[in-house]
Amino acid sequence: MAFLIQPLAIQHEGRLNVTVDPRQHRAVFPFLKMHGLFNCFVILDLRGSPQRVPAEDVQRICDVRSGVGAEQLLAIEPPTDAGRSSGADVFMRIYNIDGAEVSACGNATRCVAYHLMRESGHETVTIETAAGLLRCSASGDQAVSVQFGPIGTAWNEVPLTGPADTSCLPIESGPLKGGFAVSVGNPHTVFFVDKLADVDIPRFAPPIQNHPIFESGTNVGVGEIVDACTIKLAVWERPGMLTQACGTGACAAAFVARQRRFISTDSVMVHLPGGTLRIDLREHGVTMTGPVATCCSGYLPLQLS
Ligand SMILES: N[C@@H](CCC[C@H](N)C(=O)O)C(=O)O
């Protein structure tokens, strides 16, 4: 697969349109690469030709050696009929680097929302995902807020494979004990430790991520309380990588810290290796606010089925 990459030559007016490469007789899909706190994404606009991206293509595109390099691939598609009648502007399909579809990604939602708001000239956009509708709004020049619904805490919402106390799971790995499992549209298990820097996350997180108590694995958050309104957080994400930032992980950690009364405010600053997110905890749900950035755009010749 060959790529034509145009660093920083970003066209924000109009859609990313599909054209045909006359030499290769293959559809050429424009892509945009963006990041939210260095959690980076390739975005494809498939509104004109909604189809699934095969797992091998996702893997190749996301691999920094063979492709563009990204931690998730996002396909913008038309909303479903149900989504459209509830006000959704688009459907966002989320692929992890192994090609598996997942139902939520906080940083990606901010990036796609920013791109769509630039395209429409509006200050708000509603994105449908497999986990439901996400209402997004501009928050200054280069930042976006996303409203998630209420955090799920029931065992079958996470989902676990059977009934268990999600607020104190009976599993452990080294210093990771007493995890609190929640759903932010995707599964997260949050542990708090005294000193985050002392935890060897690549060693201790995988046994939690892949524990049979989870129906489809879990993302693993390891947090340290800095003060009554601030958390330091690292997230080990499915399918097995330490990220610079995780938006849904930040929502999960702020929610769990509040439940455990480790923090006393409804507005929590979550410091991740890639930067800081503000998480507002409200009765009707959680709102995440943070920056986005555009890396480059280009063209991907793909044979989608
Ligand atoms: N980085 C994302 C989460 C992406 C999905 C995750 N890897 C999963 O498997 O659920 C975020 O910002 O939320």
Automatic annotation (TrEMBL):
Q: Which reaction does it catalyse?
A: (2S,6S)-2,6-diaminopimelate = meso-2,6-diaminopimelate
GO terms of biological process kind = lysine biosynthetic process via diaminopimelate
Any one GO CC term of the record: cytosol
What pathway is it annotated to?
Amino-acid biosynthesis; L-lysine biosynthesis via DAP pathway; DL-2,6-diaminopimelate from LL-2,6-diaminopimelate: step 1/1
**Compartments, as annotated in UniProt:** Cytoplasm
| Membrane-traversing stretches | none
Record key words, sorted: Amino-acid biosynthesis, Cytoplasm, Isomerase, Lysine biosynthesis
Amino-acid biosynthesis found in the keyword field: yes
What's its top-level EC category?
Answer: isomerase
Give the positions of the site Could be important to modulate the pK values of the two catalytic cysteine residues. Answer: 188, 237
Annotated GO molecular function terms are: diaminopimelate epimerase activity
Record: active site: 105, 246
Q: Enumerate the residues binding substrate.
A: 39, 72, 96, 106-107, 186, 219, 237-238, 247-248
Q: Principal place where this protein is found? A: cytoplasm
For this protein, the record's Gene3D superfamilies field holds: Diaminopimelate Epimerase, Chain A, domain 1 (3.10.310.10)
What are the EC numbers?
5.1.1.7
Give the family this protein belongs to, as stated in its UniProt record. Belongs to the diaminopimelate epimerase family.
Q: How does it assemble?
A: Homodimer.
Chain's role: Catalyzes the stereoinversion of LL-2,6-diaminopimelate (L,L-DAP) to meso-diaminopimelate (meso-DAP), a precursor of L-lysine and an essential component of the bacterial peptidoglycan.
Q: What is this protein called?
A: Diaminopimelate epimerase
**Species of origin:** Rhizobium vallis
